[in-house]
């Protein structure tokens, strides 16, 4: 059924939006920011240990993360967490704390928002190893269709920003496992990302909004 008021969903941003009338937003924070969490009903949060923030890849930070996740209802996902073979953080350290966060996501029943750079094989290996029951979402996905297919086959969700391969987005939408996001671009609105996706795929915007909103309601505690 078509919902004429289906809001936009911004799956991943680092900026708290000014206007949220017609959107739901998941703002991603890191422990370094020591940010407060708004009680605004349209703003939700994710919190995790990012592979770029090597000073947070410690047992003490993990304990702090767990404590905040357990006591902050506005946080509806763990992340971003992940693996980045291009950044300067020691890779084995990244891997250790990504695995710990996979375990935490399962224990706390929070979906995992994943930062992934040139570590797709490792991610697939970990997915096989852990058999997660909580959803995994790779954010900022720019891979081509064969890569998208490999991930979608495992039940992994993909979130797309301003730049993407249209074929990959089509595949993810067919599987009902696509989201859209603005990430760290301060001047990009989620409306523009939806418009661009609709143009690239010749979709009705209301259809896309309705579908992604329904998915968000199912996947996250977004209302
Ligand atoms: Zn990000």
UniProtKB/TrEMBL annotation:
KW Hydrolase (keyword) present: yes
Classification via Pfam families: TatD_DNase
Domain of life of the source: Bacteria
Q: Does the keyword Hydrolase apply?
A: yes
Q: Which GO terms describe its cellular component?
A: cytosol
Q: Which Gene3D superfamilies match?
A: Metal-dependent hydrolases
Q: Source taxonomy lineage?
A: Bacteria, Pseudomonadati, Bacteroidota, Bacteroidia, Bacteroidales
Keyword annotations for this protein, in alphabetical order, are: Hydrolase
What is the recorded name of this protein?
A: Hydrolase, TatD family
What GO molecular function annotations does the UniProt record carry, in alphabetical order? hydrolase activity, acting on ester bonds
Q: What PANTHER family does the annotation carry?
A: D-AMINOACYL-TRNA DEACYLASE, HYDROLASE
